[in-house]
TrEMBL record:
Protein name, entry field: Sugar ABC transporter ATP-binding protein
Organism of this sequence: Streptomyces sparsogenes DSM 40356
GO molecular function: ATP binding; ATP hydrolysis activity
Coiled-coil segments: none
Stretches assigned to the ABC transporter domain: 2-214
UniProt keywords, alphabetically: ATP-binding, Nucleotide-binding, Repeat, Transport
SUPFAM superfamilies in the cross-refs: P-loop containing nucleoside triphosphate hydrolases
Origin: domain of life: Bacteria
InterPro entries to which the protein is assigned, alphabetical: ABC_carbohydrate_import_ATPase (IPR050107), ABC_transporter-like_ATP-bd (IPR003439), ABC_transporter-like_CS (IPR017871), P-loop_NTPase (IPR027417)
Length: 217
């Protein structure tokens, strides 16, 4: 479970988005478990086993006019029935498991997503990322704009994903998000400038993020 920290313009968010297919790189190469990854393509990222909680849930993660169940199962709709037909029973079963696992505050799978609070909408986005059973989970600003209880649930889900054997990348400038990681990489001006193992001091990490102390912690 790796944290990726950096100020706006450092490249941290672009790197996370590139791995999830949301940003096309102009150079460099990426591999997922030894296989090359084509950036800038969400289908390619999904095929490579990458699930993502994007930075902007409203524009990149949710369809407000659809139900909770429809949002959660969107990337796996082809698995929910024969000949491309979706079984409502199968779709709702997947959604109910996710609702229970992530403690999503909703009346049920059929509730319109727009009726949920921001924190519960964020949980739905994470549930959608996990629905594909990803090998790699990319979380970009996972707890931004949610309450304390939702933060705890989201970070606990990230730790569960790690315990299940998934690789987890947490892209964030929130210390609480980074503290659960096994190590944290700091980006500055487009490059990794420092690396800190678990147990880092807040002052050291913040200084590296601001470009004050290059090197390793």
């Amino acid at each position: 479970m790796v944290g990726l920290a950096g100020l706006a313009g450092s490249g941290s968010h672009q790197l996370g988005a590139a791995l999830a297919g949301l940003h096309r790189t102009t150079g460099g190469r990426a591999w997922i478990f030894g296989r090359p990854l084509r950036t800038g393509s969400v289908p390619a990222a999904l095929a490579a086993g990458v699930g993502c909680l994007p930075r902007d849930r409203h524009h990149e993660g949710l369809v407000a006019g659809l139900s909770v169940a429809e949002n959660i199962t969107m990337p796996i709709s082809g698995r929910l029935g024969p000949l491309g037909l979706i079984s409502p029973r199968a779709r709702d079963a997947v959604a109910r498991r996710a609702i229970a696992d992530l403690d999503i505050g909703t009346r049920g799978p059929a509730e319109p997503l727009s009726r949920l609070s921001g924190g519960n909408q964020q949980k739905v986005v994470l549930a959608r990322a996990l629905a594909t059973d990803p090998r790699v989970l990319v979380l970009i600003d996972p707890t931004a704009g949610v309450d304390v209880r939702a933060k705890q649930t989201l970070l606990a889900a990230a730790l569960r994903a790690r315990a299940e054997g998934r690789a987890v990348l947490v892209v964030s400038d929130q210390l609480e998000d980074l503290r659960v990681c096994d190590r944290v990489l700091v980006m500055f001006n487009g490059f990794v400038s420092a690396e800190y193992p678990a147990g880092w001091r807040d002052a050291d990490l913040l200084a590296a993020v601001e470009g004050v102390t290059p090197g390793h912690g």
